[in-house]
Amino acid sequence: MPGKPPWLRAPSTGGDDVSRLMVEAVLRDLSLNTVCREARCPNRRECFSRKVATVLIMGTHCTRNCRFCNVRNDLPLPLDPEEPRRVAEAARRLGLRYVVVTSVTRDDLPDGGAAHFAATIREIRELVPSMAIEVLIPDFRGDAAALRVVAQARPAVISHNVETVPALYEAVRPQADYRQSLRLLENIKKEDPGIRSKTGIMLGLGESRAQVLEVLTDLRRAGCEFLTLGQYLAPGRQHHPVREYVHPDVFAEYKNIAQGMGFLSVASAPLVRSSFHAEEALGMRF
Predict the structure, then answer these.
(1) Section 234-238 average pLDDT
(2) What would the mean pLDDT of 127-136 be, rounded to a whole number?
(3) Least confident of 40-44, 52-56, 190-194, 268-272
(4) In terms of DSSP H, where are the helices of the chain?
(5) Which domains does the chain have, with CATH numbers?
(6) Rounded to whole angstroms, what are the CA distances from 124 to 42, 196, 197?
(7) For a designed S-S bond to 138, which of 38, 69, 105, 262 qualifies (C-beta 3.0 to 4.6 A apart)?
(8) pTM for the whole structure
(9) Parallel, antiparallel, or unpaired: how do β-strands 157-159 and 196-203 relate?
């Protein structure tokens, strides 16, 4: 692939450095991880400057080895029962109105970590009752009971990323199942119609336009309401290579198509990530 095009150059300066340093200090003081750092998100400087971070719970070692992801594949450590309270304390100290909580995939746990997600939601709500909470969850290996545990804690949004088109699953995320992810998204609304369902797709992995449109159709049939589309950027040479740098006009076209299909919120641009400006899907602006 040639060098990155100009539309993929995230600004290296700008934003409120005081707020950014405050976020970093609070996370460090409370021994919390973020997917912003672990996944090398290009927007982390901006998000930190807005006092926003996507908290990564249940450790930094993942039981899966997806070829697009920078999170380390290794044997995870036992869960920390105090972590949910520390996440809530971080949200309180930072004065957040919206928080996104995600995790590594924990196939080593009987419930995939669902109870830990639920505990984190409850702790945040107890400490900061007015906060809107989004959780970005793994597939729980298709366990409907695990999803129910998370839904019963009543976050505002449950997100689960399908990541790419089904034809690329074997090459990109071989331990996952596209249909299983669709069922999870469909079951969110069955568990609680008041919870918003959300997913994210990466472009530039080698998918075709027809394949992307087919996924959008599948997602609407599953009742998915919020959608993000962003450019895939390989974290390293050992990861799946970038096959294409998708032009911003194509992202704009997909956004128009998705809105026409009935998605309630669509964020589609090269530097969009699944949690970037997530609060705006609920009409919140900071």
Answers:
(1) 86
(2) 93
(3) 40-44
(4) 17-29, 35-38, 44-49, 83-94, 114-127, 144-152, 169-172, 178-191, 209-221, 248-261
(5) 6-282 (3.20.20.70)
(6) 27, 18, 20
(7) 105
(8) 0.92
(9) parallel
